[in-house]
Write a structure and sequence with these properties.
This protein is of the alpha/beta class. Helix content is 35%, strand content 24%. The protein has an eight-stranded antiparallel β-sheet with strand order 3-2-4-1-10-9-11-14, with helices on one face. α8 packs parallel to α13, α9 (297-314) packs antiparallel against α17 (474-488) and α13 packs antiparallel against α14 (423-434). The chain is globular. The chain starts with a strand and ends in an 18-residue tail after the last helix.
Length: 606
Amino acid sequence: MCGIVGYIGPNNAQDILISGLSKLEYRGYDSAGIAVGDGACIATRKKAGKLANLTADLEHSPLPGTFGIGHTRWATHGPPNDTNSHPHATENGDIVLVHNGIIENYLELKEGLLERGHQFRSDTDSEVVAHLIEEAYAGNLEEAVRAALAKVRGAYALVVTHKDHREIVAARTVSPLVMGVGEGEMFLASDVPALLNYTRQMVFIQDGDMVILNDDGYRITDMQGHPVQREVETIDWDAEAAEKGGYDAYMQKEIFEQPQALSNTLLGRLHDDQGSVELDIELDPNSFDRIHIVACGTAYYAGMVGKYLLEQLARVPVELDVASEYRYREPVVTDRTLAIAVSQSGETIDTLEGMREAMRGGAQTLGIINAKGSSMTRELDHTLYVHAGPEIGVASTKAYTSMVSAFLLLALWLGQQRGTLSKEEVARLVHEARALPRLISEALSDDRLGRVRAVAQKYHQARDYLFLGRGVNNPTAYEGALKLKEISYIHAEAYAAGEMKHGPIALIDEHLPVVVVATESRLLEKTISNVQEVRARGGRVILILSDGDTENVQHAEDVLYVPRCDEMISPIVNAVPMQLLAYYTAETLGKDVDKPRNLAKSVTVE
C-alpha cells in the first residue's frame, strides 16, 4: 500500500515530489524518500518514519534537479529503517527505482544475483528489481526494465530512472498507477490527489502497461513493446472527492480496493509453484495444542471464520471470545495456549486487555493486525500483518476480508507444518487462494453492482432483516447483519441457518427480507431445506448463489450471484455482496456511510 510519485519537466522536482508524497502518506508512513536528477547525476535522500523527517532533512540540504521519483512506504519485506526505505539504487547509483507491491519470487532471484556477484544493501524485495534492470541494461532503459520484469512474479507499480537518461519508465501489474499530463511536464502517482495541484488531465495506467515519460511527453506500450492507447480523462473532483479517488464515500472506495488489499495480504506468502505457504512470523507450529481467538465487532466475525478454518485445516481446537468478556470469565490458559488477537487498528482496548489476561496465564500471543507500530504489535509475541493499508471508513470492509485471508494463510501454514493437510491439498488450496484478487474483482463487476443496488432499493424500507448461513459461511451472515446495522440503522439479526427453527422462525412473515448465503458447499442441500422453511412462512428470500446455480433460483424472490470458488475461501468472496447491500441500502436512505452515528473507527475505552 505504498505511495509513489514521479516528475519530469522544467520545475523544481523536489518540491513537486514532496507535495505529492504529502497527499499519499495515508498509503504508508514507515519511511519516505526521493531521488532527483540534474542531468549529471541522481541524488537520493530517504528517512525512516513519517514524511516530516525527510522534509526536515531536505530543508537543510535540498536536492536540485528537474526530474525525479519519490516514495512513502508501508513496510512488507524488511523492517522500516533508512536502509530499507525507497528509492533503491544499484551499487554504482546509476539506476534508481521505487516500487509498490510484492515481488513473490524475490528470494529465488536474489540468490541468482548474489551468485553473479551483486551486492545488496537492503532486506527488501524491491531492490532485486534494480539489480535485474542493471544486468539487462545495454543503453536502453525501457528495454532493460521490460527484460527485468519478464523474470518477476508478483504485484507492482514500478517507477525507474537512470542518471544517463532524462527519462522515467514505469510499469504496473495489480498495484495502482496514474499519470498526469501537464503543459510541458509529466507526472506519475499512486493516486489522483497527489497530482491535482499541477494538472487535472489524467491517464489511468492499466495492468500490463508500461509508460515512458520524457520532455517530449509520453508513450504507453504493453509488456512486449507494442503501442497502447489510453484515454486522457479530465478530473473535476473537489479536494474531498479527490481523497476518495472519485468515489462517493471512503467505504465505497475501500470496497473496491479489496482486490489490491488481498494481493498485499496473500502475495509473497503463497507459492503456487511450490504449493506451499510461508509466513513472516517465528511462531513454532508445534508449541501449542489449543488456540484462543479474542476480538471485537467485525474482527470477531473474522475470528469466527478463522475458527472454522483452523479447526478444519489445521485440526487445532479453537475457542472464540468477544474480547470484552474474555478476561472476566477467567479463561483456562496454559503455556500450551496460543492466544490470537484480531484488530484492524491494533489499539482496541478490550482486545488488548484480553491478550494481557492470556499473557498472565502463560500463553503465547499472536496478532492479526493491520496497523503498524500499534500497541498490540509492541506487546504481543508475534504479528501477522494483513497489509490492507489504512482504512478510513468506520464500517470495515477491506480490513475484514484481509483478516479472513490472514486466517486462511495461518490455517494452511499450520496444516502444512503440522502434517494435517497433504501436500496435494495444500497445493490445491494455495492455487485457489491465489485467485482471490481476481474473484473479488469479478464480484465487483458492473452487472453485479446493479443487481445488488436494485435489491437494496427494493427492501430499503424494511424495518428488520434476517441473515442466515451455515458452516464456514455462518460468520458471513453475522458480518452481513452487522454491516447493515452499522450504516443503515435497520435492525438485523443473524443466525446459523439450522438454528432458525429453534426460535427465530417466529419472526418470519411476509414483510421480512431474509438473506441466505447458499453458495456451493457440502452443506448447500441442508441450507436450501432451511430456505424452504422460510418460504413456507412467507419470508422474502434473497439468496446468495454461486455462478451457474440455476437449480436453486426457484427458492428465492431475489438472487445475488458471486463467482464460484472453493468453500474454504468463499467467506471472503461472499462478504462482497453483504458489504454492497449495506452500502446501497444506506445510500438509498441518505445516511452518511463513513460516519455512522455513535461509532468510532478505533475503540480505545472499555
